[in-house]
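I wish you would study the pair of lines that follows with an eye to the fold:

===
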Amino acid sequence: MHHHAYLWTGPKFRFDQEALRRPPHPEPPPPGSRPELIQRYREVAAEFPASDLPPLETAYWLVKPREFVRGTWPTPAAAAAWLSEQLAAFRARFTSEAHRDARHLAALTASATDRLTSGGDSSYGFYLERPAYLSLALVTCTPNRARPDLPCPLDR
């Protein structure tokens, strides 16, 4: 087992494009469906795996291109250390004063360590100024507890 890190930051309006953050339904629309429904399914099926937007379900980061992986570690503690570094680096840009509190950030890191240790994933999001959004995720891989069928991005 190992853990991959993902980071996305960008305009809040782009983060809000939820259709691009969901994987396509496993079954395409049935024959005879409306052409716009078929076209939309094709767009989502093509765009979701390639989009850098954070998926709604954290485990789906694993289907994204391997170049989106910001780091890989064999232990939860090492992965959580990366998270702590990112939180410190973005801390001054958080719009919420409570999110800038060092004790709060330490608690998030500890929580991520616990979740990774138990085989889970950890994902956090923060509003930044402008308005922008920051998404940080740590995903347990090989296997992922929530989605054991998803392959490791480093194996592709």
